[in-house]
Amino acid sequence: METHIILAITVIIGFYMAWNIGANDVSNAMGTSVGSKALTLKQAVILAGILEFVGAFFLGSHVSNTIQTGIVQPEVFAHEPHLFTLGMMGALLATGFWLNLASLLRLPVSTTHAIVGAVVGFGAIVGGVHGLDWPNILKISLSWVVSPVVSGLVAFGFFLLLQRRVLFAFHPLQAAKKLIPYLIFIVISFFSLSLIYNGLASLNFKISFVFALLLALILGSIAAVVSYFLSRNIRISTKKNKEHHPQQVLFLEKAAKHLQRTKLSSEGEVKDTAGALLQEVRQLTSEIKGKAEYIQNASEYNKIEKIFAYFQIFSAAMVAFAHGANDVANAIGPVAAVIQTVKLNMISEVATTPRWILALGGVGIVVGLATWGWRVIETIGRKITQLTPTRGFCAEFASALVILVASKMGMPISTTHALVGAVLGVGLAKGLSALNLKMLRTIILSWIITIPACAVISIGFFYLLRLIF
């Protein structure tokens, strides 16, 4: 009877944890899209809901196995599996509580920090310092430093490329039309490779990396060709502004030529008058030309941002998929560990994650995003730096790249770190003054506090559960 109660409570706590991941961490993933206005909040919730679930269901088991057996050494608790079970339950409760508090304060904390800190907390108290897998913990900790730096550098470089090739080009729209097929090829190929190779492997389909890469490149090439023909239809109209139409420049230049001829062929008062008129016409031509070019470029930039809004929708889908693949483990890893330990009445060194637990975590994340996600979305999307679709796309693609690679490696990196690092990268491309340093200081401080806070809370919940069970 007690066993069934423990299992039921663990599943409930796991769902609560997943709900908090959706409320806090998924908000990080979708904040850039909402902040740049590429997606409305409702659209972000729907898109994230679908892709988070798919990522969690197909790829979530890789990182889940690390959370189960890669932090606390199972053999230390071999003679006391009950304590291991209560410790994992306490870690889940502590992490859920901390995320709940952070979401209330609208702070994007790291779920990975929280769950690792919580597991380390109970592991050190119950099993002693020797009960922790320090080499693996060190590897995870290093990833928390590397992920924001790599994401930031990739986003910074990617946005600089867009600036030089498109935004600073003499004809920005023409430059964008040339670059679009290449961007589509990179994005579709990478996303397809992750879905085909990693996803099918999770379903026990044997597929070689070479075959998956070839198929991904074919899909990317098809998408690039389609985008090439679609981009040819992109046009820009300047006829809406009659006051400073570029055609007026041609008329004035023709008038200037006639006045020049009149001046050269005349003498006396006619020559002086023609010279004065010529000077006025040239000045007027220069003024109208400048205003017409500004209007033309402004219209082109608006069109480019609209184009990249569609790119950002796709990159947001990539981030949601990557986040579901990586961070669902923070909720379902301890749940799977408890269920496996209770059923076997022993701690197994071989971690397994049932599909229904992955589905439970995916559903919990979606519900959390839909009910409370808007709080942290506002912080990421509007309070770090001003985001446009071009900047948002660069930030999301960079973070998705880092997260998906880490997921395949089974490394529980921080999605929050990766995304905030990427947002910082595109912000720095515009200059340090573009960043809200006060908000950044608050976010980084919350990251530092998370690990010790969750460790202490986890120990408290462990002793409380031990009194009850």
Secondary structure layout:
Elements: H1 2-35, H2 41-69, H3 81-104, H4 111-127, H5 134-167, H6 172-202, H7 209-231, H8 247-264, H9 268-327, H10 329-344, H11 355-372, H12 374-382, H13 389-408, H14 415-430, H15 437-468
Helix pairs in contact: 1-2, 1-3, 1-9, 1-10, 1-11, 1-12, 1-13, 1-14, 2-6, 2-9, 2-10, 2-11, 3-4, 3-10, 3-15, 4-15, 5-13, 5-14, 6-7, 6-9, 6-13, 8-9, 9-13, 10-11, 13-14
Low-confidence stretches are 238-242, 292-296
Global outline: elongated
Radius of gyration: 28 Å
User: What is the beta-strand fraction?
Assistant: under 5%
> Which range best describes the helical content: under 10%, 10-25%, 25-40%, 40-55%, 55-70% or over 70%?
over 70%
Query: What kind of sheet is the major sheet?
Result: none
- SSE order, one letter for each helix or strand: HHHHHHHHHHHHHHH
Which structural category do the helix and sheet elements fall into?
A: mainly alpha
CA-to-CA gap between the ends? 12 Å
How many β-strands, per DSSP?
A: 0
Count of runs of 4 or more consecutive helical residues? 15
Average pLDDT figure: 79
Count of discrete structural domains: 1
